[in-house]
């Protein structure tokens, strides 16, 4: 076989593979390839005379291609991955008597339809004509209708795609925003997307529908404590193991639970006015304090100091290191104390009551140092900002429906947001400047807010009763909500902290939906 063919003469099929490895392909056009007919690059020198053999051409006169060279995909075996389109009648006639190519493979598999829709959208129009990169289909073949995988070309081009619309394959986006549900989502410059359904549901029999109780808390060791009737149960978020911590007996009920910061000791407030301290690692009660005359519905820890709020209108400070049942007694509320939270620096205690009052105390005061009377219903929802010192959020009950923000450093009322329904709980994200609120009458919803604009990032529904209980995971990404419908629902609402390592404390970030019993 003569390897010294002329530059202008087309090589034989057996010469194609050898010639491709020795020199770049020439920019001559082929009748059945649009891309091949385009000028891939501008030669930097005049090509050799047609009568001069290619092997005899001097290096100076040989065609040199720039970095804009676009390779031909004519020899690609697209049929190997089932990516080639179905041949048209014209292609079948043209291909008669020749070896089958990648363009004759079918594209009827679900993978082809899925990939085409994922890359270019389900309503992508056909590209006019065909090209060598488009599975070598004939340019004279008519364009097939959109949405017909068996006849259309899988590589279609959308007319207008925004530059900032980045498609992520196989990433679970919101159902309302996904162009192809369950496959990918369009991620632009808009707000963060939050899943609208819980990823886990636990049945919690006998979870009380009482606005003034606080029966759910999440420890720093990733253990959830839940008061159900006269018992307290512990649910390990990593292993899903359920442990029965205590049983108060038939004559008493659990009204509140609260973890100490270390996550090893749990305080339990009872209907008879008792405050019990339990060692959760040994499931052993280490102390009982009987100083309140009525039920204890609110608990808050500050290091070794435990504060308890009661229906007897008082707040007691218990130092678990001291022998006395309590070390100080705070008076000021005219009705039941139902909300109690220490600030992150442990310098201020906020209390809310059924008297519609919000008070702020310092560690050594027995009278409130700040009094806020703007709410027109019971104040149970209280949350301190972890991002700004002295920023306090509070929420009112059914007759109020408002979330209010206060600067306790300057003693000023900052803003008010009418939510339209009873505010049951508030918690601030530790990772971003956002907060979540849970609501009762009449919508029973969960709302994620961005502060300070108070724009809604998400409204989550699913509970059929008032969402009375709320706690946040130790990594700050997941919240759990409880309601009188006797369910606990877990939601992924906040992003991970920027400095979070891969070995996170949280084991509850699964996206699969699950439902089980907590006892």
Automatic annotation (TrEMBL):
GO cellular component: anaphase-promoting complex
GO MF, one annotated term: ubiquitin ligase activator activity
SUPFAM superfamilies: WD40 repeat-like (SSF50978)
Annotated metabolic or biological route of this protein: Protein modification; protein ubiquitination
Species for this entry: Eragrostis curvula (weeping love grass)
Record domain CDC20/Fizzy WD40: where: 202-491
Key words of the record: Cell cycle, Cell division, Mitosis, Repeat, WD repeat
Pfam families for this protein: WD40_CDC20-Fz
Family label: Belongs to the WD repeat CDC20/Fizzy family.
Annotated protein name in UniProt: CDC20/Fizzy WD40 domain-containing protein
Lineage of the organism: Eukaryota, Viridiplantae, Streptophyta, Embryophyta, Tracheophyta
Superkingdom assignment: Eukaryota
GO term, biological process aspect, one: cell division
Annotated region (Disordered), positions in chain: 1-62, 80-105, 126-148
Sequence ranges of Low complexity compositional bias: 52-62, 92-105, 130-144
Keyword Cell division in record: yes
WD repeat residue numbers: 247-288, 330-362, 460-493
């Amino acid at each position: 076989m003569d390897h010294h063919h002329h530059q202008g003469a087309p090589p034989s099929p057996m010469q194609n593979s050898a010639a491709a490895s020795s020199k770049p392909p020439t920019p001559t056009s082929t009748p059945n390839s649009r891309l091949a007919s385009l000028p891939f690059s501008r030669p930097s020198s005049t090509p050799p005379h047609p009568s001069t053999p290619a092997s005899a051409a001097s290096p100076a006169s040989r065609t040199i291609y720039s970095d804009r060279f676009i390779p031909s995909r004519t020899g690609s075996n697209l049929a190997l991955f089932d990516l080639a389109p179905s041949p048209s009648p014209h292609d079948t006639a043209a291909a008669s008597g020749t070896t089958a190519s990648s363009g004759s493979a079918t594209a009827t598999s679900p993978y082809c339809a899925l990939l085409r829709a994922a890359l270019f959208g389900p309503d992508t129009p056909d590209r006019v004509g065909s090209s060598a990169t488009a599975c070598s289909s004939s340019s004279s073949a008519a364009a097939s209708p959109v949405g017909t995988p068996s006849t259309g070309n899988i590589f279609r081009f959308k007319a207008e795609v925004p530059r900032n619309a980045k498609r992520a394959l196989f990433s679970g986006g919101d159902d309302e925003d996904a162009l192809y549900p369950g496959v990918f989502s369009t991620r632009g410059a808009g707000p963060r997307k939050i899943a609208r359904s819980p990823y886990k549901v636990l049945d919690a029999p006998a979870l009380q529908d009482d606005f003034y109780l606080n029966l759910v808390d999440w420890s720093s060791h990733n253990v959830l404590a839940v008061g159900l009737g006269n018992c307290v149960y512990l649910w390990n978020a990593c292993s899903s193991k359920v442990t029965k911590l205590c049983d108060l007996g038939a004559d008493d009920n659990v009204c509140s639970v609260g973890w100490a910061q270390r996550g090893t000791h749990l305080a339990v407030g009872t209907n008879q006015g008792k405050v019990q301290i339990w060692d959760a690692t040994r499931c052993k009660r280490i102390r009982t304090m009987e100083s309140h005359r009525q039920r204890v519905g609110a608990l808050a820890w500050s290091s070794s100091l435990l504060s308890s709020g009661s229906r007897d209108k008082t707040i007691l400070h218990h130092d678990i290191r001291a022998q006395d049942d309590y070390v100080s007694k705070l008076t000021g509320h005219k009705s039941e104390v139902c909300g109690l939270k220490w600030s992150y620096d442990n310098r201020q205690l906020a209390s809310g009551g059924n008297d519609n009052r919000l008070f702020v105390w310092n560690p050594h005061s027995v009278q409130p140092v700040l009094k806020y009377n703007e709410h027109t219903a019971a104040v149970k929802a209280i949350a301190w900002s972890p991002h700004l010192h002295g920023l306090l959020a509070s929420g009112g009950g059914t007759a109020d429906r408002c979330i209010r923000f206060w600067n306790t450093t300057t003693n000023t009322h900052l803003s008010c947001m009418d939510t339209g329904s009873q505010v049951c709980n508030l918690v601030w994200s530790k990772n971003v400047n956002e907060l979540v609120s849970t609501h009762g009458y009449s919508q029973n919803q969960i709302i994620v807010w961005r502060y300070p604009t108070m724009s809604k990032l998400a409204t989550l529904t699913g509970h059929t009763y008032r969402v009375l209980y709320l706690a946040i995971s130790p990594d700050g990404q997941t919240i759990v909500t409880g309601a009188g419908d006797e369910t606990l629902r877990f939601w992924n609402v906040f992003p991970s902290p920027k400095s979070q390592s891969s070995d996170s404390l949280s084991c509850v970030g699964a996206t699969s939906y699950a439902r089980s019993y907590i006892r």
